[in-house]
Structure formats: C-alpha cells, structure tokens
Amino acid sequence: MRLDIAGKPTQPSSDIFLNTVITVHIVVTAIIFLLPIPFEPVEFNLPDPPYLGDSFPENTHLKKAERILDDSILGPESLAYHLGEIYSGTADGKIVRISKDLLVSDVAILGPPSCANETECGRPLGLRFGPDGGLYVLDAFLGLFRINVTTGEKSQLIPKDTEVDGKPILFFNDLDVHSNGTVYFTHSSSRWHRHQHLTLAMEGTSDGRLLKYDPSSRRVSVLMDGLALANGVQLSQDESFLLVAEGGRMRIHRYFLSGEKSGKTEIFAENLPGFVDNIRPSSTTGGGFWVAHPTVRRRCIYDLLAPRPWLRRLLLKFFTPETIFQYTTKPYGLILELNDEGEILQRMDDPAGSTVSVVSEVLDTGDHLHLGSYSTPFLTRIQISQEKFLV
Q: Any idea what the Cα angle at residue 279 is, between residues 276 and 284, rounded to 5°?
C-alpha cells in the first residue's frame, strides 16, 4: 500500500486509469442513448423465414436469363406490354418505349423539363394500360398520370401531396386498372418519400394504404389501412378480388371486390421468403401470379431487427439505413409463381445474384419473362420454353 506525505493510503495509478476509462465509457454510452434519431422504431414480429427446399429447392434457373439494354435503361421498376412493345419508367423520371428490336425511345417526361433530383423530376413506379388504351403511371412523388403513348400527351389525375382522410400521400407505389376505369393503387407511407424507403423499413410502421380512384367523381377513397410498406397491386383475372403486397410483413392480402365477401380482406399468402414487391399475372397457369422478391430474408438482417427496436435505434445513431442494409444484405435473385389460392407453384433463383438480383416485377409476355428492377441499368429476360413450368 502506498502512503501520501500525510501518511494516508493512495490509489494506484492503474486503478485511477481503469476508473477513468469506466467513467468515460458510461458517459459516452449515456450520450449515445440520448442522441436523437428522426423517428421511433416500432416492434413487430415475423415468423421464421420459410424453408422451401423439400418441395421447391433452391435452383439456378434465373442464371439462364440474358441481360438486355445494358446501360440503355436505368431502374426499370415496372413494365407494361402493349401491341408487342414494352413500356417502362426510368430513374430519371422518363417513360420509355422498348421496341421489338430493343430500341429505346422516350414517350413522356412527368416532371418539369429542368430538375435537380428525383423529388422534382419524379420516379415512375407502377405502369398499366387501361381499357381506354391509355398508359396509367403512378409516380412515387408526382402522383397518378394518364399518358397517350402515341402523342406523349399526359394528364395528371391525382396530384402529389394529395391528402385522403387527413393523411398525405408521400410515397405512391403500384396500381392496377379495372375494366370500368377504376384505378386501385397503394401508397407506402404518409411520412417518408421513396428515396427514404429503407428508413421506412427500419422504422417498421404501418401507415401504408390501398386506395381507390373513381374516374367519374375523381375522388380517392380508402379500402385498406395499416399496411407496412404497401406495394404491389394486382386484379384477379375475373376482377373479383385484388391482391395487395405488404412488403414490410412479407405477405400478400386479398381484397374482395364482389360476391359475399365484398369489401372484406383475408391473407392470400404469408411468411414469404423475401420482401414482396410487384405482383403480375402469369400466362403459364389459369389465374396464377408472378411475385417479385428484391431481397431474400435469409440474406438480410431484417428478421433479426424486427422484434428489437432498441437495436435499430442504437444502430441508427452510428449508421444510415442505407449503410446497414448495404453491408448486411447479400445479392439474390428470386421470383415465385403462385396459383389463385396463394400456393407456390414454382420458384426461380439466382443464388449469387450474378445475373439477376433486386427483382421488382415480372412481365410475362407468353414467350418470355422480363424482369424489372428499380436499381439495375438493364433488363433481364428468360425464355419460358427454357424451363419446366409447373401447370
């Protein structure tokens, strides 16, 4: 024991250093926990990711796809087929036409001629041709448009920042058009824009909705509320129901439009193997659907973070949502075909994501599957005859 000049015991310098380190650690930890973040993550739970291997084993079918239009089209999120030609929206706010000879030409620009970012320029997402021959486009920022693809003339049906039942629409997503002209569409959030979709995913809130646009009254009404990252929309072949993707909960809802269950909902498919993006009809089965998965859950941290809002809160004090997902998500290509009861008919994979990854939509033209993606500078396609489709 050391004594000072007054004969009192002194604390060793090593103990002083250790106490200082502990004190600093406690103070820094307290400061970190007190630092604000721009939202409050909510707790939610997901069942364990499904194992499909016995019935539908992992495969490499999508590796046989070919890339087309390399560096000629950026971020073709959604695809529409009309008179042998494909239409898509691009990351710079344009609507383009892809000819049978794979020539790309501009059809329309939704935003102003001069703009600086996607908030101003727009970001076209869902595309559908309506019964009147017009191309209906849902832009994430700018709202709903109808485009004459022959003249390029556009008309805005729903403006940006529209409020429905007191809640703004900040993130328009996907749509489908009924034979009577009614437009059914989703919006993913009333708080976050499209470029903040990873923030929305990290927050985990459920303020997405399924909405209906009546062309005769030009009014918008709510059909479903409380959806976490509401996404793809698809009418059934007989138009008796709608499918609505809830990306943030890995499931698809069925909303009945007619019959005894009209106005009611039920789960169509749940605990899917990845985030659910757009849903589109399949030509290989009567009434079937293609479901695109841009991210696979077994290659992503999302399931781990879901029931741990405290962990998300802590991570977001050090890293952006983009950084977290970038370093915890591995590329993977996956699409599923479901029948009209939500049962899986087949899966097609690219496990390494080397040819196909981040699939946002499947366009089935009868001879090819064209795969859209919101992030790639190309399209991919695969001949239907190349694979054994289960029918």
A: 125
| Each residue's pLDDT tens digit, 316-336 | 988 999 999 999 999 999 999
Residue 74: other Cβ atoms inside 10 A: 16
Helix, strand, or coil (residue 94): strand
Residues 238-281: tens digit of each pLDDT: 999 999 999 999 999 999 999 999 999 999 999 999 999 999 99
pLDDT at res. 284: 81
- Per-position b or e across 25-40, b if 16+ CB within 10 A of its CB: eeeeeeeeeeeeeebe
Do residues 337 and 284 make contact, with C-beta atoms less than 8 angstroms apart? yes
Question: What is this structure's pTM?
Answer: 0.90
Report the alpha-carbon distance of residue 277 to residue 371 in Å, rounded. Answer: 12
Write the CB contacts of 6 (distance below 8 Å, at least 6 apart in sequence): none
How far is Cα of residue 126 from the mean position of the Cα atoms in its chain? 11
- Residue-averaged pLDDT of the chain: 91
Query: Does the structure show a pLDDT above 70 at 88?
Result: yes
**What is the rounded distance in angstroms from the CA atom of residue 79 to the CA atom of residue 100?**
14
For residues 76 and 288, give the distance between their C-alpha atoms in angstroms, rounded to a whole number.
Answer: 23
Contact 224, 254 (CB under 8 A): no
Helix, coil or strand: residue 385: helix
Bridge partner list, 154: 147
Phi then psi for residue 257, to 5 deg, are -100, -15
Long-range contacts for 143-151 (Cβ within 8 Å, ≥24 apart)? 143/169, 143/172, 144/172, 144/175, 144/183, 144/185, 144/213, 145/110, 147/95, 147/107, 147/108, 149/82, 149/87, 149/97, 149/107
